Hints:
This protein has 475 residues and is α/β, with parallel strands linked by helices. It has helices at residues 2-26, 36-49, 110-131, 150-156, 209-223, 263-284, 303-316, 323-333, 338-347, 378-384, 404-408, 413-435, 437-453, and strands spanning 52-55, 64-70, 74-80, 135-142, 165-172, 176-177, 184-193, 232-239, 251-260, 287-296, 387-393. Helix 1 (2-26) packs across helix 12.
Amino acid sequence: xxxSERIWDHVDARRExxxxxxDRIWGMPEIAYTEFRSSAEHKAMLEAEGFAITEEVAGIxxxxxxxxxxxxxxxxxLGEYDALPGLSQEAGIAEPKPLEGNGYGHGCGHNMLGxxxxxxxxxxxxxxxETGQPGRVRYYGCPAEEGGAAKAFMVRAGAFADxxxxxxxxxxxxxxxxxxxxxxxxRLDFTFTGRASHAAAAxxxxxxxxxxxxxxxxxxxxxxxxxxxxxxIHYAMIDAGGVAPNVVQGRAVVRYAVRAxxxxxxxxLNERVIKIAKGAAMMxxxxxxxxxxxxxxxxxxxxxxxxxxxxxxxxxxxxEFDATDRAYAxxxxxxxxxxxxxxxxxxxxxxxxxFEALCDFIVPLDQIGEPMIxxxxxxxxxxxxxxxxxxVATHAIGTPGHSWQITAQGKSGxxxxxxxxxxxxxxxxxxxxxxxxxxxxxxxxxxQKRVTKTPYVCPIPAEVNPPIQPRPANG
Length: 475
């Protein structure tokens, strides 16, 4: 208890600086692999706090790592700072109002995610310096979680090879230890090449790449009836072949995201989707090429770490929100449907008689809810090293992920309070790992048992590299 309170004091001592960091990152939203300003802000904080810095981790210009401490185990905190396209939004209001600019927005709360993880790392660094306890702390600034799989590339490059345990979190509407359930995910581009021609005068000479895309989409839609109900497949048109209907489209590109409960299931679905694409090419007498863009593994749980994190949450008590926080959350909830709100409760197995605006409780560790599963590149880290993740209330219950409402709440009172609370939870868990070698040994044994049963294989093909983006001229 005393150790926990001590590390929490170190979090509180630096909280204002990291709330400001979170707000700055919110104000400079950058999408996957273009987070040059955001990563520079994190690097500046690492330098100011006295961390030794490694830049361009795994050859990625926007990935950074800071380390401090001597001897002992290495505890890693995972941070993120990438934004999403199409989610620009004014902060602090309860109506959609995009800001002028590129249209990007922090609609998943990664401005908070990286800031809290770095705050936890800084608190642990200062705690170790004060107590003289052996141990090393690392902060990994991880870009491109949103579809870019940067952590998977970092794992493949060996960036976590000597780490003993990894800790992270994600902004949420309900506070709990993450259930370590996510979908393995591959993103693939299918490029169809046909033959352009005049659609009226010589349609017989054309071979439509757009027809091939449409036939592929139909085929995949028919396949949905014959795949596991837990799997997900989505697509987006990248290049429809032009805007002139009187030209037979000679080239078209469609992007697919294929998700399954594990890597094996994902690979099997990938092969089926590729076969459908080849069939569509045959039917239209076009050619098709397939390019893997990124891929991530499903999350691997770790019972000892999850129990340790939950114990820290219980010692802390729920995030404490005030009347102003609740009033704003109620205004946000007024923009949502009852289904939005109920879905959040069902996710953790709860069916409340009345809706609360903000989460004032901690979901029990053994609470089982309805699986509503996304994907994350934290999954690949969890196969490389014992990993645990928190979900911490930072926004109104029912707020959909990847929404303007998340962006709007990104600098609010609940966001700030949840950020600091998350840092305390993560830092407290790290202190427990360093103070109790038996706990760390149990975590490692749990991890080893899981990976021995199913060894890790990176889901990204060896020939696929991170899609590095050029640094802006004014960057």
